[in-house]
Amino acid sequence: MKFDAPYCLTHQDGKTHYASGELRTQRLLSEVPRGGRWPVFSMVPFTQLRERGFDVHDGGEAILSLVTADYREIQLADVLPPGPPPEVRTLGAPRFEMDDAEFEANVARLIKEEICQGEGSNFLLSRKARIKIAAFDWKVANTIFQRLARSEFGAYLTFCFHDGERFFVGSSPERHVTIRKGVVQMNPISGTLPKSLLKQRADLIEFLSDPKEINELFQVVDEELKMMSRICSSGGDVYGPYLKEMSTLIHTEYCLQGFTDGDYMDAFRDSMFAATMIGSPLENAARVIKKYERESRRYYSSALLVTGLDDDGQEFLDSAITIRTMEVSADGEATIQSGASIVRDSVPENESREVKTKAAGLLRAIDNAAPTTSSLPAYRDALVDQVLESRNKYLSRFWMEKQHQSYVEPRLEGKSILIIDNEDEFTHMLKHVLTHLGMRAQVVDFRSAGPLVEDSELTLVGPGPGDPTDLNDPKMQVIHRLVQDLLDRRAKFLAVCLGHQVLCHRLGMRVEPTDPPLQGVQKSIDLFGRREPVGFYNTFFAQRPELAPAGVEIASEPDGRVTALRAEDFCSFQFHVESLLTTNSVPLLRDALLWVATGKHPTVRPPAYSSAPPKP
């Protein structure tokens, strides 16, 4: 084995592999070499988001692809020459690019100026730390890799990638996307318990019962279901939640699985990058990250991509998120970047501590050769599992149960519906559900929707970030015109979240921000006479007027917040009817469509709640 030229070491599922070959660079994913008998390993930079049209700090980083000429399974011990391992020593303490006070102030400002202003439900805010590694060379890099492989027993992929100049050494806890034989898998991870805080079983139960941690995970699952809905048109399943233990942390995660018959690289592009690494909704979260972070993320929070052919000669794609990863220059200057997912309930001091804890696993691998052991089994029992599984009790049956059954509604089958996307890909989840109901659904950007709306059989005005009352905002001007046109023509339509708020505004209702925002929160509401657990992702609410507009029926909470409208020609929901957090997502959407299409409310009621969580 040669380590003085480009190479990649990987450790996954207890096996270690060595690859070496030619290093090539690309600007576009379409240019990345596809692996054959031996895989191709590609470090994809965060700036690749530009391929999706998202705002991003662009440092000019290229995709780095190792085209393998030598590939073999090896023993983990063989990554170093015989004899004593080299000393791994750092010079000084880690230097964070901003101190705790500045980072905490940014967290507080982000909550106030972004989440509380309707710009999104969560955002991944990160910071960099730098540290000098003494006498750094490939032996030191491989030693750190070996230590990580032995200590980070919960990692999805541990790797050491050398492009001939720099080293990328990491132990990623999270799969980005895997596609084998058409089966697509994603593993959203969120919620973090530092193991230093785990002293007794009650600490684990408190973590699993914390609304902030629960909602944070649900939000990223919803965001990645948006991606899965784009990629896997034929359906998908949600498994979990599970506990994932790392050397210094415990996380919670779900597994999403579906099927695609499309091009694997297109699927990877459509999934750039994990919601856990950016936020929700994805496109606006990318804008916010650019606003709050000073420079390019380089290769942090993107993915190490692996492509090749399996034993049956079929193409596969695998990828791990590049977190818990250090980038090290030839002279040993190491950069470690870590982040925290900021939601409405975030406590700035806790988020600052979480960022440091995430970096601790890598720093420990530099300074400590002793492997870590699992401690979770000592605290886990039937009660812990029950608390974990109880999270699923009121989640959407459509997303949590097998989607292979038929949901086709004969009275809707074959009808067409135009879905207006207002910069939130929840519209792809809506399309996914509507397709399962037998409809022909098309998603169109709000900027190009105008000419299509007049000819549409049904229209759905979708959700999106922003202040619905800001008529100086060009986006809001367009959406207001679209909704007013639908009202003037008495066209048949539905509206969700932002679409609902604009509709309420056009009907003369007062729309105002609520404190605290309901971003990624499940609440039970009175929906026209029946209780429904539903998912909210909003900062603004319409207030019930003293007199309802003529012909409009209003569902509202005791404090006057409007949750839904229905009239002869339209139905609207403030909540996200398509969300994982809406228990009866399919029946509610079906009933609303039938109301609009037939003019009378169906008598169908959803089945009684099931107290047992779905099983994989």
Which percent range fits the helix content?
25-40%
State the secondary-structure class.
alpha+beta
The description of the largest β-sheet is: 18 strands, antiparallel
Quickly count the domains: 2
Question: Number of DSSP helices?
Answer: 14
CATH class of the largest domain: Alpha Beta
Give the CATH superfamily of the largest domain.
Answer: Anthranilate synthase
Round the mean pLDDT to the nearest integer and report it. Answer: 91
Strand portion: 25-35%
Describe this structure in words.
26% of the residues lie in helices and 32% in strands. A hairpin with a 5-residue loop joins strand 25 (553-556) and strand 26. It has 2 domains: 7-391, Anthranilate synthase; 399-598, Rossmann fold (3-Layer(aba) Sandwich). The protein has 616 residues and is an alpha+beta fold. It has 14 helices and 27 strands. The longest helix has 21 residues, at 211-231. Helix 4 (211-231) packs across helix 10 (426-436).
Outline the secondary-structure elements.
Layout: E1 7-12, E2 15-26, E3 40-44, E4 63-74, E5 90-96, H1 100-113, E6 122-133, H2 138-151, E7 157-162, E8 167-172, E9 178-180, E10 183-186, E11 189-194, H3 201-209, H4 211-231, E12 236-245, E13 249-259, H5 264-270, E14 279-280, H6 282-292, E15 303-309, E16 315-321, E17 325-328, E18 333-342, H7 348-367, H8 382-389, H9 397-400, E19 416-421, H10 426-436, E20 440-445, H11 450-453, E21 458-461, H12 474-489, E22 493-496, H13 498-506, E23 510-527, E24 530-543, E25 553-556, E26 562-566, E27 570-573, H14 585-598
Parallel strand pairs: 19-20, 19-21, 21-22, 22-27
Antiparallel strand pairs: 1-2, 1-7, 2-4, 3-4, 3-15, 5-6, 6-14, 6-18, 7-8, 8-17, 9-10, 9-16, 10-13, 11-13, 12-13, 15-16, 17-18, 23-24, 25-26, 26-27
